[in-house]
Amino acid sequence: MLKEIGSGAWIVDSGAPGSRVCLSFGVHGNERAPIDAGKRLVERFECGELSLTSGSVLFVFANPRAAEENQRWSDGGVDLNRCFHASVLAREPALHEEKRAHEIIRFLESFEPEVLVDFHCTVEPGDRFMIHHPCADDPAHAQVTALLEAGVILADPELRFGGVSLDEWMSTRGRVGICYETGWMGDPANTPEAVYAEMVNVLAGSGMLDGREGNSYPEKRRLELFSAVTCDGKDFIWDPGIGENLQPLAAGTRLGAYGDEREVVIGEDATLVFPKKRPELVERGKPLVLLARETNGGSGSQ
Ligand SMILES: [Zn+2]
């Protein structure tokens, strides 16, 4: 039975013991495939086409207002996925997204999920991947990431992203929190059907769905963020062919140069993460790109 517990929040409870899972979507309102997939999943539980055999699920449609406007965040608002830091949650919320972050935390605090998977898609072209804060072979996270098809895990053990996102709110409290980038929003393969199947697989693989078994994808490329290249000049230009997300580069590779011809070269082998390719996103004192390296890990899934 599906029960609406607040705006954009629903619980399905099997009544039997089992996992407590939260699936969230639409933190960014223009990420259509996860939004349509999540809404479809809620509808199928509502009409009884899907049912749980164990445990319970909380669904969160995080930012319906931004989704209605088909914008990343609502008019005059801010990025909701920067509103889950303790310092933001501690102050009186003023903007829509700040208020919404408080509401979402209330849903999480009352439901107490053990696992949260937050479904996104990317603005820039690239393959799907997942991000989480604990190290790349953290066993509790690996159980869940094995249920997601993407072949790349990007871990952020030093919280370089800042502990600001919904998945980090979970993982900094000792629970499983995963941000799943389901692919590029312009990729014809990034469909609601594809994302829906992945959402269902999380529940099936957790043994919660009647008559379904989950698929497992334990083989992953495991990366950990270890550094950043900070912008300290003006008019940075990337070299041709350099600056793709998850692009591996050898030590000594030139990334590009500032307007005064000062070069930026990486000092060690690294994989680029979230390069700021668009000049309007480059900000002095902020990362030009984050750097990750492959981890050999010690998990049993290798
Ligand atoms: Zn997003």
Short description:
By secondary structure, this protein is an alpha/beta fold. The protein has 7 helices and 15 strands.
Molecular structure report:
The chain has 302 residues and is an alpha/beta fold. The chain folds into 2 domains: 2-205, Zn peptidases (Aminopeptidase, 3-Layer(aba) Sandwich), CATH 3.40.630; 225-294, RNA polymerase II/Efflux pump adaptor protein, barrel-sandwich hybrid domain (OB fold (Dihydrolipoamide Acetyltransferase, E2P)). It has helices spanning 32-46, 64-69, 86-90, 96-111, 139-145, 166-171, 192-205; strands at residues 2-6, 9-13, 20-25, 56-61, 115-122, 129-132, 152-155, 176-184, 221-230, 237-238, 248-249, 254-257, 263-265, 270-273, 287-294. Helix 1 crosses helix 7 (192-205). The protein is globular. It starts with a strand and ends in an 8-residue tail after the last strand. Mean pLDDT is 95; it is low at 298-302. The structure holds zinc ion. Zinc ion is lined by residues 27-28, 31, 120. Zinc ion (ZN) binds at residues 27-28, 31, 120.
Throw out a few tags for this protein.
7 helices; OB fold (Dihydrolipoamide Acetyltransferase, E2P); alpha/beta; 12-stranded mixed sheet; disordered C terminus; Aminopeptidase; 302 residues; binds zinc ion
